[in-house]
Design a protein that fits this description.
alpha+beta; Arc Repressor Mutant, subunit A; Beta-Lactamase; 2 domains; 8 strands; 20% strand
Length: 261
């Protein structure tokens, strides 16, 4: 019983931490309370605990909470130990530099996509994705590239974790339509984001596979529709596939986080 209770408390505290981080700026308690699932005394207790543990910082003058310095240390450890970023860094840097386009590196966690690195080689266009950002798997190029190459049981579990919210007119709203595309992606080795998450944003993505065929992530080239067309993105296919292959070759012994834990 104690183990369950402790896990529940930790999960609730982490949800408060997530709420603060999602704001993208220092935030006051009253703002958090507006959308919090917890009553004021409970929310305050979690905020105090997280602050005491340096997971949050508190500005007494402004009365605002923000992610704490301890998270920087944890994030650095996670980046170096639990992400593909260190392995992929030279390869995505080279790809972005040669194409002068934005390159994203992503992994899957609990059915959601986590962008673990990004290279922006040109200031002509800035994508919204950034390292640490979480996005839906079912409506992103990198997400579909990974979903398409998961083992059947893991794929089924990941699909059950999708919300299938309709972000644009191009968004998949059911597992049935998505599955048809995933089969095509697995066959062709390339996925596209056809303005499915954001209007005006498109991408071409490739799965990162080990020699054994295990998918450990995905890499994409993302751009705006006023810069390229979907057909035009096909010109990047050879370089993108080469990049994904190089990363996969170096990731043979790397243990990716489970897709369904």
């Amino acid at each position: 019983m104690n183990g369950v209770t402790n896990d529940g408390t930790v999960a609730k505290a982490l949800s408060v931490l997530d709420q603060v981080a999602a704001m993208g700026r220092p935030v006051r308690m009253r703002e958090l309370l507006e959308t919090s699932e917890f009553p004021k005394p409970t929310l305050y207790r979690f905020l105090q605990t997280l602050t005491n543990q340096r997971m949050l910082s508190y500005d007494r003058e402004l009365q605002t909470y923000a992610p704490g310095i301890r998270l920087v240390s944890l994030a650095h450890s996670a980046w170096s130990q639990a992400s593909l970023a260190p392995i992929a860094a030279p390869h995505i840097t080279a790809l972005a530099g040669s194409l002068r386009e934005a390159v994203h590196l992503a992994q899957i966690d609990n059915g959601q996509i986590v962008f673990v690195d990004k290279r922006q080689a040109s200031n002509q266009f800035e994508t919204l994705a950034r390292a640490g950002q979480v996005a839906p798997a079912y409506c992103t190029g990198v997400g579909k590239a990974i979903l398409a190459n998961l083992p059947e049981e893991e794929q089924a579990q990941a699909l059950r974790q999708q919300a299938f919210l309709k972000y644009t007119d191009a968004t998949h709203t059911s597992a049935e339509t998505l599955l048809r595309e995933l089969n095509q992606i697995r066959s062709e080795g390339i996925a596209f984001d056809r303005e499915e998450h954001e209007v005006g944003i498109i991408s071409i993505a490739a799965p990162i596979l080990t020699d054994a065929g295990r998918v450990v992530g995905a890499v994409s080239i993302a751009t705006a529709t006023n810069r390229h067309t979907l057909d035009g993105l096909n010109a990047f296919r050879p370089a993108l596939l080469d990049c994904a292959e190089l990363i996969g070759a170096e990731a043979q012994s790397w243990q990716s986080p489970s897709a369904h834990t």
